[in-house]
Design goal:
The protein is 29% helix and 22% strand. The protein contains 6 helices and 12 strands. It has helices at 13-22, 43-65, 82-90, 129-139, 173-182, 195-199, and strands spanning 2-6, 30-34, 69-72, 95-96, 100-104, 107-112, 148-152, 186-188, 203-206, 209-212, 220-223, 228-231. The strands form 2 sheets. A 6-stranded mixed beta sheet has the order 4-3-2-1-11-12, with helices on one face. The longest helix has 23 residues, at 43-65. The chain starts with a strand and ends with a strand. The model has no long low-confidence stretch (mean pLDDT 95).
């Protein structure tokens, strides 16, 4: 099974167009967008981006290629617009990855958009570490994590995937603890854009779990056979 993953697109249309173009390939089974999907600094600006661009493109992709698109919001997306994703989900245009899971080709795909507290003003998708830990227990109650691909907007704390410019770690302790304890098949992350440049690393193992944070708008190809990860444009 092969799929494309991108996160923190922040409304960059060239990234979306590249994802949709690559997603046409016969060997690609589905697409995953891991949060911070919109542009604009207010709810109306983000709503305009969704309704004028992203929604029509998602519908067009679904109509012509029929492949699943998994998508969720992140901490820079206003929660007031999540109803747009709900509507698309009801119409079977997308599969909304907000604290829920889906079965796909013998695997589970589970999404979690919330992040641990930040200094940013927008708080719609923030929770305490305790709350995140409880949510992850609930999310994984009826699935086997070892057969699950998790899409977390936040990266795990204390790794090479959650480093700021000053090399301080700002990921989620609850997510790190969950990965250490449950050892999921794969975990995909984003949120901290600069981490790949600071650490020089986009992937790291926590026990047997391969964890990936490709950074801002970088598209990666995931091949679950052998769990191979390749950044598009990189050999």
């Amino acid at each position: 099974m092969k799929f494309l993953y991108v996160t923190d697109t922040h409304g960059t249309r060239t990234v979306y167009e590249k994802m949709f173009d690559l997603g046409r390939g016969k060997d690609i089974d589905f697409l995953v967008f891991g949060g911070d999907i919109t542009s604009g600094v207010n709810p109306n600006g983000q709503k305009f981006f969704l309704e004028s661009y992203l929604v029509p493109r998602l519908k067009e992709f679904r109509k012509h290629f029929g492949k699943p698109v998994f998508i969720m919001m992140g901490n820079d997306d206003f929660e007031s617009n999540v109803r747009i994703l709900r509507r698309l989900s009801r119409q079977r245009i997308i599969r909304k990855l907000h604290a829920r899971y889906y079965k796909m080709n013998g695997f589970n795909i589970a999404g979690y958009p919330f992040v641990n507290p930040t200094p940013f003003l927008l708080k719609d998708w923030e929770k305490t570490e305790e709350e995140i830990g409880k949510d992850l227990e609930t999310l994984s109650k009826n699935i086997n994590p070892k057969k699950t691909i998790y899409v977390f907007h936040a990266p795990p704390f204390g790794t090479k995937l959650d480093m700021l410019h000053n090399r301080e770690h700002k990921g989620s302790r609850a997510i790190a603890d969950f990965i250490k304890r449950e050892q999921p098949l794969l975990s995909l992350h984003g949120h901290i854009h600069e981490s790949p440049e600071v650490s020089g690393v986009t992937k790291q193992r926590i026990g047997k779990t391969l964890c990936v944070n490709p950074g801002n708008g970088r598209i990666i190809l995931v091949d679950t056979e052998g769990m191979k990860i390749k950044e598009i444009g990189q050999e």
